[in-house]
Design a protein that fits this description.
Length: 127
């Protein structure tokens, strides 16, 4: 029996559910939805971008973020290239972020917001 990978399963689900909500989230106090097809398109565009900047199978890419739908988009785009996601939760202490970054060999990171960027910037001399 051939086992389908999660990205194939996601795409098949998008084919079936098309315009049904895939993600619901609040922005500026109002609920917003993204359909399965919109999400699949966002993942494809992000995957193309990552490929164009050189991410390939086996590479590691960091996501430093709280839980949010964009985290999932980035993760699926990374996985679609055969690359490896290295998640770092937003509340991780700077010394632990430095340890992870120094050991995961990632050259690219998705970073949520200015506070996380400041955390990374403060560690630059240690990386």
């Amino acid at each position: 029996m051939i086992q389908k990978n999660p990205l194939m399963l996601f795409s098949e689900k998008a084919d079936k559910l098309r315009e049904a909500p895939c993600f619901r989230f609040k922005t500026k106090g109002k609920w917003r939805s993204l359909s399965w097809l919109e999400v699949r398109e966002k993942i494809a565009r992000l995957s193309d971008f990552l490929s164009k900047i050189g991410v390939k199978k086996g590479d590691t890419v960091v996501i430093l973020s709280a839980t949010r739908y964009e985290w999932t988009l980035a993760d699926l785009a990374i996985l679609s290239l055969g690359a490896v996601t290295v998640p770092i939760y937003h509340s991780t202490l700077p010394k632990d972020v430095a340890y992870i970054l120094n050991h995961c060999q990632a050259e690219i990171a998705f970073i949520e917001g200015t506070s996380q960027l400041a955390k990374i910037s403060s560690l630059r001399s240690e990386l």
